[in-house]
Amino acid sequence: MLDEIKEILKNIVNTLNNKFDQLINTVSSLDKKIEDRFSNIEAKIEKLSEKKEETTPPITYRELQTRFNNGENVQSILNDKKLKNDDLKKICKEGNISIKAKAIKSVMITSILEALEKEKPINIAEDEAKRLKQQFDELAQRWSNNEKEVENELEKYSEDELKTMYEVNHIEVKSNEALTKTNILQAIFLAFRERRSYLKGL
Questions:
Q1: At what angle are helices 181-201 and 159-168 packed, to 10 degrees?
Q2: Chain mean position to CA 128
Q3: Per-residue pLDDT reduced to its tens digit, 153-177
Q4: Is the Cα dihedral 181, 187, 192, 193 positive or negative?
Q5: Quick check: helix, strand or coil at residue 143?
Q6: Which one has a higher pLDDT value, 40 or 184?
Q7: What percent of the chain has pLDDT over 90?
Q8: Which sign, positive or negative, has the C-alpha torsion 145, 148, 153, 154?
Q9: Eight-state DSSP code of residue 95
Q10: Residue 155 burial (CB < 10 Å; 0-12/13-18/19+)?
Q11: What is the chain's alpha carbon radius of gyration, rounded to the nearest angstrom?
Q12: Counts of helices then strands in the chain (DSSP H, E)
């Protein structure tokens, strides 16, 4: 009888040990799954962060332009190691700067600096500024009656002449556009339209 009881107890202990081992294995498996899941989530978050950094350059062409015009040394900004080739390509694209697909960093920096120098505001004498404002008013008035004629006339102006007229009359291109001849002309024509609409509303 005693032997039977011992055998029963032994079986119970063995069963409990087996169940306990199974429980440990289950918990370990769950820990592994949870760890893998968190690792996957962390990897995805890191990938998204990298992607976000890739799509947004540390500085834009417009910001560089403002700093350059204020006399800051933008070359040191462009030479920063944090500024990658892809960032410089995005800056060139924003500034409508033509570069080769495989352009090296130094070439892109030189191209950006040349573009900034080219677009730097011009110092204009007071009498010249007055003349250009009067000329702009006359062109705007003529444009109201004959758009095509004035537009063809302005097309023949050099980029520097248009830029001077643009600056004297405080015309602005869109914030994400460079000061190319085409963009300046579009901004001038828009200013003509706005002036005509204003005068019609009086």
A1: 40
A2: 37
A3: 999 998 888 888 888 887 777 656 6
A4: positive
A5: helix
A6: 184
A7: 11
A8: positive
A9: T
A10: exposed
A11: 35
A12: 9, 0
The structure's pTM equals: 0.47
Query: What CA–CA distances, in Å, run from 45 to 31, 51, 197?
Result: 21, 10, 51
Among the listed residues 102, 99, 108, the one whose alpha carbon sits nearest the alpha carbon of residue 79: 108
Q: Which of 182, 195, 184, 179 is nearest to 139 (CA)?
A: 195
The distance between the two most distant Cα atoms of the chain, rounded to a whole number of Å, is 125
Residue type, 176: N
Single-letter residue type at 14: N
* DSSP, res 33: H
Block residue for tokens 């009881």: 5
CA distances from 161 to 23, 184, 198 (A): 84, 11, 26
How many residues can be counted in the chain? 202
DSSP 102: T
Tokens of 134: 């009067």
**Mean pLDDT over residues 111-126, rounded?**
81
The residue type at 147 = E
Return the HEC string of 103-137.
CCHHHHHHHHHHHHHHCCCCCCCHHHHHHHHHHHH
Say how far apart CA 12 and CA 30 lie, in whole Å.
27
